[in-house]
Design a protein that fits this description.
By secondary structure, the protein is mainly alpha-helical. Helix content is 43%, strand content 0%. The protein is globular and about 35 Å long.
């Protein structure tokens, strides 16, 4: 999924096992840290512990994570999580969702 970041040679590609419960619909052992980078970034920013988030930034780098939040954050993250990371990473401009309704609103009508 998404673009493939240059893997830091000193960082293990192994996804922290504590994140496994957040990938229930996937075969956790089959996830690839490069191929599935956007999915891993999304789930870690949304549900990860500080230790897992630290791993994420060491593994992918701040530039790649900022790009994810800027380009996909509004659609891939919950509103609260997107706003948290947008403010923390000082992102002032981002790609807005083309859909006018918030996630879940469509089905509640």
């Amino acid at each position: 999924m998404g673009h493939s970041p240059a893997q830091r040679s000193d960082m293990p590609a192994t996804i922290p096992c504590g994140l496994a419960p957040h990938f229930q619909e996937y075969d956790f052992d089959a996830l690839d840290a490069d191929r599935d980078a956007d999915l891993i970034i999304q789930r870690t920013l949304e549900y990860g512990t500080w230790e897992e988030v630290r791993w994420l930034f060491e593994r992918y780098g701040g530039k790649h994570i900022r790009t994810f939040v800027r380009e996909r954050g509004e659609r891939w993250l919950s509103k609260a999580t997107f706003n948290y990371w947008r403010k923390l990473l000082k992102i002032k401009r981002w790609r807005h969702s083309p859909f006018p309704t918030a996630r879940g609103d469509l089905w509640e009508r």
